[in-house]
C-alpha cells in the first residue's frame, strides 16, 4: 500500500505513477489464442474434443457435451432456502432495473416531409461465457444473462469449462433461474471460438459476453468484429472517498471486498483526514487475518492499495476523474456535491450505507463494469449490448425533390457520379 | 455478377457461398501496425516525424504539424454557393437527427427505498480520423464529427494525412462548418496511435472514430480497449429489394452508387420478376460507361454483384436477414410489410423515391453503418458512441437492512467473506 498526500510537492508525479501502473497480466497469450481460434474455425468439434481433453481433462464424447437443464433445475431445488431466496431477490431486482433500459424506437415525419427514425431489435443469439473453478459466480451469471433475456434475445447459449467433469451447483442453479437450457461443457479460448464461428454441434451466436481468464479475454478481443463482445475486462478496482465521520472498520471492509478478488485488484481510499487514514489502514491490517481470502487480500492491498489524503474532498474530484474507477464509493455525510461533480466512474455508491458489495449482488444495476480507467469512455453491460439499432428514411416524391439537388451537388463534389445519378434520375419525373 | 433463383435446387448452397464470400482485404498488416503503434507509444513525436516523412512525404517540422483553422474557414468561404448551401443543409439535418439520440438519465427511489439510476456523460476528448486522397469525403467528416459535438464532447481532435503536403479544401470546409480547430497532419496507423497514446504535442483522446484504409482499421482494432472505437468497418454494400413497378434505370443507378465506391463493394438486387432482373442488368451495363468511376463500378459489379429472383418478395425476408446488409432499399409500392418483417440491416430506405445516396449525404441518420453482416449485432455511429453511462445506487440504513442479509448470503455462497463483512458490519448498527 502506498500513501500519498496532495500537499506533497512530489504528489503529481507519484499520482501519475499510480494512475499509469499496469496491473494487467503481461502474459502474451495472443499467439496461442490465435492458433486455438484457427483450429476451432477449421476443425470444429474435433478441435473442441482435443482441447477440452487436454485443458480440462474432460472427454466430451464419453462424459457429455452438454449439461442437462434437468440438472440445473435440480441444483436450484437443492439450494438452501435462504440462499435460494437471496438468488431470487437478486434476479428480480436485476431484471427490474434492466427492463427500464429498453430503448425507445423513433418514427417521425420531419418538416421537409421525410419519414425518419430508428428502431431497435434484439440480436438473434447471445453466447455467455461462465468460468470454471474459483471465479464461477452465480451473481455473474445473472448479471450477464438477465440483460440478454430482457432484450428479448431468442437463443442464449452458455459455455463453461468443467475441469475433470466437475460442475458448480451454484452456477447451475443460477442458469435454471434465468432459464438457460443450452449449456456446453467447453471453456477457454476454444469455447469462445465455438460460439463465434460455430461448429458442427454448436450454432454460432452474434454477441459473446461474460468474464474469463487472460485466454478468454484475448479470444474475445481477437473475435471483436466477427461477433459483438461486452468489453475488454481487466482487474477489478474500488475507489472509496470517505470522511472521518465513517467507522474505519466499515471503510476497511469495503477496501478489502475488492482486494479479496485477486492479487491484481486495486483498492484506493481518498480522505480529508490523515488520522482517519491511519485508522483505516490499521483496520485493514486487523481484518485481513479474519478472512478466508486473507492471502489474496494481503497481496492485493500490499501491491496495489493506496491511501490519498487531500485537504478537502472537493479537491479530490480531478483525482477521481483521472482514476475513472470501476467502483466509486462516496461514503460521506452528503454525497451530492461530489456526485454532481464527478464525471468518470463505472458505478457510484452513495453515502455511508451503500457498500459496493450491494451492487455486486442485488442492487439492480449491472456489476459488469469498465475497468482500468475505461470508465472514461465505456459503460457497464446493459440491454443495449444485446440489441442493435436500424435507422430508416422514407422520401415522398416531394421530399426527394426538396432534398435531391443538394445530394447531387455533394455527390458531384465528392466525385461519385452514380450517387448523384441515382438521385437525379428520380428528379426528372 | 451472379444470378440466383430461389427456385433453383442448388439455391441454398449458392446463397451460402454468396453470404460467406470474403470481400475484405486479406492483407496481413497486423504485425506492421503493431510495430508502428509501439514506436509511436515509445518515441512519440519523433516517430510521427519519421513515419509521416516516409509515408506521406511531408516534413512535419518544416511543413507544419497542424492545419490552421483560418485555412479551414477560408476553404468554407471559398466554396461554390450551391455546394456551401448543400453542406449546410446536410450539417443541419444530421445535427437535428442526432440531437434526438441524446439519452435520458434515470434517478428513482424503488419500492425497497433504494435510490437507483444511471446518468450519461460525454467523453472528455474524441479523435477523428479523416483519410487523405480519394476517400476524403466532407460528408464523412460531418457524419463522424456531428455526433461528438451533439454529445457535448469538449475536445475534438482530427488527424489526416496530407501526402506531399496537399490538403483537400472540401474536407477543410467541412471541418470549419463543424468547428474543428485541432487538426494534425498525420495519418495512417501512426495517426491513430498518436490519438490513442498521446505524444509530446498531441494529447490523448478517449474515443477514435472515422474511416480509413486497412492500416487505419487494424490500428483501431488493436487499440480497442485503450480507447473506444466506432467499429470494425469493411467494404460497403447495398441490398435493393425491388418489384417490377420500378424504372430499371433507377434501380441500376442505386446498385452502381455502391459499386462505384471500391472494387470490394457489393451490390445485390432481389426481385420477384425475372424479366425485371434482366432489364436492370441491362441498365447497369448501359450506365457503367457513362460514369467517371466506370472502372471501379465494373470491377465491383462483375466480382461481387448479384441478382436473386424470388417467387414473391416476402419470401426474401430470410435472405435479407442472412445478408444483414449495411444499406437495404425497399423499392416497392408498399414497403410496410417487408419493413415490419426484416430484422437485420444497418439502415433501411423506404419506397421508390428514397435512393440510398440521400442517406449518404443529408437524410439525417448516420452513414457510418455496420458492414459485412455485422448489422446482426452492431449499430450505426451515434451520439452514444461519444458518451458513457454511470450507474448509481444509494441505500438508506433501512434499505440496507432490507437488502443486506441476501447480499451476505450470496457473498458467503461465493466464498467472498470481505464482501459479506462490508455489508454485515453496517447491519449491526
From TrEMBL, chains A, B:
Which catalysed reactions does the entry list for this protein? L-histidinol + 2 NAD(+) + H2O = L-histidine + 2 NADH + 3 H(+)
Query: Required co-factor?
Result: Zn(2+)
GO CC annotation: what is one? Answer: cytosol
Task of the protein? Catalyzes the sequential NAD-dependent oxidations of L-histidinol to L-histidinaldehyde and then to L-histidine.
Which residues does UniProt mark as catalytic?
326 (proton acceptor), 327 (proton acceptor)
TM ranges are none
| EC number(s) from the headed UniProt entry | 1.1.1.23
* Gene (name only): hisD
Per UniProt, substrate binds at 236, 258, 261, 327, 360, 414, 419
Q: Which UniProt keywords apply?
A: Amino-acid biosynthesis, Histidine biosynthesis, Metal-binding, NAD, Oxidoreductase, Zinc
Q: Which InterPro entries match?
A: Ald_DH/histidinol_DH, Histidinol_DH_CS, Histidinol_DH_monofunct, Hstdl_DH
Q: Specify the enzyme's EC class, one word.
A: oxidoreductase
Q: Which GO terms describe its biological process?
A: L-histidine biosynthetic process
Quote the CDD domains the UniProt record gives.
Histidinol_dh
Q: Where does Zn(2+) bind?
A: 258, 261, 360, 419
Please give the Gene Ontology molecular function terms for this protein. histidinol dehydrogenase activity; NAD binding; zinc ion binding
Positions contributing to NAD(+) binding? 129, 190, 213
**Pathway membership of this protein?**
Amino-acid biosynthesis; L-histidine biosynthesis; L-histidine from 5-phospho-alpha-D-ribose 1-diphosphate: step 9/9
Q: Name one Pfam family in it.
A: Histidinol_dh
Could you tell me what the cofactor note in this record states? Binds 1 zinc ion per subunit.
- Report the protein name in the record: Histidinol dehydrogenase
Gene source species = Sphingomonas changnyeongensis
Give the family this protein belongs to, as stated in its UniProt record. Answer: Belongs to the histidinol dehydrogenase family.
Amino acid at each position: 500500500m502506498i500513501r500519498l498526500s496532495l500537499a506533497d510537492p512530489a504528489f503529481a508525479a507519484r499520482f501519475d505513477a499510480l494512475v499509469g501502473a499496469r496491473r494487467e497480466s503481461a502474459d502474451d497469450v495472443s499467439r496461442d489464442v490465435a492458433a486455438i481460434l484457427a483450429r476451432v474455425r477449421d476443425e470444429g468439434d474435433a478441435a473442441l474434443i482435443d482441447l477440452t481433453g487436454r485443458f480440462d481433462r474432460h472427454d466430451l464424447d464419453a462424459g457429455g457435451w452438454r449439461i442437462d437443464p434437468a440438472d440445473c433445475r435440480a441444483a436450484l431445488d437443492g439450494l438452501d432456502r435462504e440462499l435460494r431466496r437471496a438468488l431470487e431477490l437478486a434476479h428480480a431486482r436485476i431484471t427490474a432495473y434492466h427492463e427500464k433500459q429498453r430503448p425507445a424506437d423513433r418514427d417521425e415525419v420531419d418538416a421537409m416531409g421525410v419519414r425518419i427514425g430508428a428502431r431497435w431489435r434484439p440480436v438473434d443469439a447471445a453466447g455467455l461465457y461462465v468460468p470454471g473453478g474459483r471465479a464461477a459466480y452465480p451473481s455473474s451469471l445473472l448479471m450477464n444473462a438477465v440483460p440478454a433475456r430482457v432484450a428479448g434475445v431468442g437463443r442464449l447459449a452458455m459455455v463453461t469449462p468443467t475441469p475433470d467433469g466437475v460442475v458448480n451447483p451454484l452456477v447451475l442453479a443460477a442458469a435454471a433461474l434465468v432459464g438457460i437450457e443450452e449449456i456446453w461443457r467447453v471453456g477457454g479460448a476454444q469455447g469462445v471460438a465455438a460460439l463465434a464461428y460455430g461448429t458442427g454441434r454448436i450454432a454460432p451466436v452474434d454477441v459473446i459476453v461474460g468474464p474469463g481468464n487472460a485466454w478468454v479475454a484475448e479470444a474475445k478481443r481477437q473475435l471483436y468484429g466477427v461477433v459483438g463482445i461486452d468489453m475488454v475486462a481487466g482487474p477489478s478496482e474500488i475507489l472509496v472517498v470517505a470522511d472521518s465521520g465513517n467507522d474505519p472498520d466499515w471503510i476497511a471492509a469495503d477496501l478489502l471486498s475488492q482486494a479479496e478478488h485477486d492479487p491484481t485488484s486495486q483498492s484506493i481510499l481518498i480522505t480529508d483526514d490523515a488520522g482517519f487514514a491511519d485508522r483505516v489502514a490499521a483496520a485493514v491490517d486487523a481484518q485481513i487475518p479474519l478472512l478466508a481470502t486473507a492471502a489474496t487480500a494481503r497481496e492485493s492491498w500490499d501491491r496495489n492499495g493506496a491511501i490519498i489524503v487531500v485537504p478537502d474532498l472537493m479537491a479530490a474530484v480531478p483525482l477521481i476523474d483521472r482514476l475513472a474507477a470501476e467502483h466509486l464509493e462516496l461514503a460521506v455525510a452528503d454525497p451530492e456535491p461530489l456526485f454532481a461533480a464527478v464525471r468518470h466512474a463505472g458505478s457510484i455508491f452513495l453515502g455511508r450505507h451503500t457498500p459496493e458489495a450491494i451492487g455486486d449482488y442485488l442492487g439492480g444495476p449491472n456489476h459488469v463494469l469498465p475497468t482500468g480507467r475505461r470508465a472514461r469512455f465505456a459503460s457497464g453491460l446493459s440491454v443495449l449490448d444485446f440489441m442493435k439499432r436500424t435507422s430508416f428514411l422514407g422520401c415522398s416524391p416531394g421530399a426527394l425533390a426538396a432534398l435531391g439537388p443538394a445530394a447531387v451537388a455533394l455527390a458531384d463534389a465528392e466525385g461519385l457520379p452514380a450517387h448523384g445519378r441515382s438521385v437525379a434520375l428520380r428528379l426528372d419525373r
